[in-house]
């Protein structure tokens, strides 16, 4: 496997997914090595090939570093990025997973420099889909920019970690997982919570798993920093509602984690949230202008929360890690139908 990101050094969801997939493949008897500039991950069952990078344009330079690697001993190359220069066959089967669309993300980011970077990364995604024998999307909405790709395998969540039941918090609790700034809109959620939720439910709490929150936060808002999987699973299970109001998600792993834990999801109608919640049938989709009121209403209605939670658990079965890995095993064995 190739991944620029791993949980040892990055909070990017792709790295967590690679770690989970690689571990599950090893449990099934496969030998797996992950090539990455990130340090080894505690608890990894797979091998790790460390290719440290420094300086500017690291993701692009990592692609050139990967092109020079000898992969002739492997049966499958499964890339989660940075394989777009590897057009000469190096393994019997080359699989690429497109974790969203940088073209789509470019429509939502701010700043000329960041937009240009996303557009350039989008071009590499297109090239990668042509280089690989099989390309996989994580949700149907991301097909807009690569319509020739037909395979869809969602991201996977381990129910053994995130499906554990435990008592709910005594006070109304909303959980957020993401960044304070940027497209995750943690700051906007905190503002909506303080403006529209706290006046109606003074004892409510917004717990934010984020590393970039400011030191001063509104009353009732707590920043938790970075958590282990076990700690995060405990936060999900104790929460009454989960909220991630991103401008864009190709999938949105935290949505699936929350649903696996039986927590009602409130989200803005980005591509990933629409797919994971089945257009809101297994969650609640709302615009930013109504976000705080929707949260307050849901926190105040236990019957509705239970109905949404029940649908969430049913939908979450589609994202169980075991089923996702089985789907990839079929892809690995499927032959060399390029780009499909």
UniProtKB/TrEMBL annotation:
Residues 170-315 form the Glycosyl transferase family domain. Coiled coil: none annotated. One of its GO terms (molecular function) is hexosyltransferase activity. GO terms for biological process: carbohydrate derivative biosynthetic process. InterPro entries: Glyco_trans_1, Glyco_trans_4-like_N, Glycosyltransferase_grp1. CDD domains: GT4_PimA-like. Keywords: Glycosyltransferase, Transferase. The keyword Glycosyltransferase applies. Residues 13-160 form the Glycosyltransferase subfamily 4-like N-terminal domain. This is D-inositol 3-phosphate glycosyltransferase. It comes from Agromyces ramosus. The lineage of its organism: Bacteria, Bacillati, Actinomycetota, Actinomycetes, Micrococcales.
């Amino acid at each position: 496997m190739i991944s620029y990101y791993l949980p040892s050094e990055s909070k990017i969801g792709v790295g967590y997914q690679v770690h989970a997939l690689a571990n599950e493949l090893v449990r099934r008897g496969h030998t797996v090595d992950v090539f990455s500039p990130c340090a080894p991950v505690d608890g990894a069952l797979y091998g790790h090939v460390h290719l440290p990078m420094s300086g500017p344009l690291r993701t692009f330079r990592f692609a050139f570093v990967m092109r020079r690697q000898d992969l002739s001993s492997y049966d499958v190359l499964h890339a989660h990025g940075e394989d777009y220069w590897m057009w000469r066959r190096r393994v019997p089967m080359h699989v690429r997973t497109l974790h969203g669309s940088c073209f789509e993300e470019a429509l939502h980011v701010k700043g000329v420099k960041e937009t240009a970077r996303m557009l350039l990364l989008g071009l590499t995604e297109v090239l990668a889909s042509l280089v690989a024998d099989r390309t996989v999307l994580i949700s149907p909405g991301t097909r807009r920019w690569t319509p020739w790709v037909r395979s869809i395998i969602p991201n996977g969540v381990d129910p053994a970690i995130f499906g554990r039941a435990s008592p709910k918090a005594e006070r109304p609790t909303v959980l957020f997982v993401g960044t304070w700034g940027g497209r995750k809109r943690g700051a906007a959620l905190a503002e909506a919570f303080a403006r529209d939720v706290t006046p109606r439910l003074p004892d409510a709490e917004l717990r934010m798993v984020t590393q970039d929150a400011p030191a001063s936060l509104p009353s009732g808002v707590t920043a938790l920093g970075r958590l282990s999987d076990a700690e995060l699973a405990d936060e999900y299970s104790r929460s009454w509602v989960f909220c991630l109001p991103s401008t864009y998600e190709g999938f949105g792993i935290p949505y699936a984690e929350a649903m696996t834990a039986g927590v009602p999801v409130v989200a803005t109608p980005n591509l990933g949230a629409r797919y994971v919640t089945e257009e809101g049938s297994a969650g609640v989709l709302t615009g930013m202008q109504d976000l705080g009121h929707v949260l307050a209403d849901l926190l105040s209605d236990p019957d509705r929360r239970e109905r949404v939670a029940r649908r969430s658990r049913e939908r979450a079965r589609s994202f169980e890690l075991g089923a996702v890995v089985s789907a990839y095993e079929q892809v690995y064995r499927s032959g060399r139908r390029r780009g499909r």
